[in-house]
């Protein structure tokens, strides 16, 4: 049985809050189930790792719980969030701009290596 889950948020668009709940919530659940969980935010979703962005977003209009609250919950459960390196240039960010819950910056090789070289990994993409 797999012991690690990699969630790739590549097609999830932060402009559509309803798209953000499932992958982050599933990261929380998997981490609570004691799986090793990595959430890699790339493409448009990479902006979620920038301070001040997720705090302004909600999954459901009128909700008081922000996307950042979901990220913090998942992080507290043990999920690790990463920003893909091209996002720094795409969104004019530096490492100092990243939220504290972001473990760091990874490139495409990190994702490929995680998937191809570890038989204990399963991948969900959003």
Overall description:
The protein has 126 residues and is α/β, with parallel strands linked by helices. It has one domain: DsrEFH-like (Hypothetical Protein Ychn, Chain: A). It has helices at 21-32, 67-77, 86-90, 108-116, and strands at residues 4-9, 36-41, 80-84, 102-106, 121-125. Strands 4-3-2-1-5 form a 5-stranded parallel sheet. Helix 1 (21-32) runs parallel beside helix 2. The longest helix is centred in the N-terminal third of the chain and has 12 residues, at 21-32. The radius of gyration is 14 Å and the shape is globular. 32% of the residues are buried. The model has no long low-confidence stretch (mean pLDDT 96).
CATH class: Alpha Beta
- CATH-wise, what's the superfamily? DsrEFH-like
How many distinct domains? Answer: 1
Number of beta-strand segments:
5
* CATH architecture level-2 label: 3-Layer(aba) Sandwich
Q: Characterize the main sheet.
A: 5 strands, parallel
Could you tell me the mean pLDDT? 96
- Total helix count? 4
N-to-C CA distance: 22 Å
How is the largest sheet built, in terms of strand order? Answer: 4-3-2-1-5
Helix-strand makeup class = alpha/beta
C-alpha geometry: globular
The helical percent reads 25-40%
């Amino acid at each position: 049985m797999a012991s690690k889950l990699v969630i790739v948020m590549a097609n999830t668009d932060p402009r559509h809050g309803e798209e953000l709940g499932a992958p982050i919530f599933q990261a929380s659940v998997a981490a609570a189930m004691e799986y090793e969980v990595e959430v890699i935010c790339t493409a448009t979703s990479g902006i979620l790792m920038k301070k001040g962005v997720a705090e302004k977003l909600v999954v459901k209009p009128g909700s008081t719980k922000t996307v950042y609250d979901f990220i913090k919950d998942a992080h507290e459960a043990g999920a690790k969030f990463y920003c893909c390196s091209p996002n720094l240039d795409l969104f004019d960010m530096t490492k100092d701009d990243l939220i504290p819950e972001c473990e760091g910056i990874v490139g495409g090789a990190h994702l490929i290596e995680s998937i191809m070289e570890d038989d204990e990994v399963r991948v969900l993409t959003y």
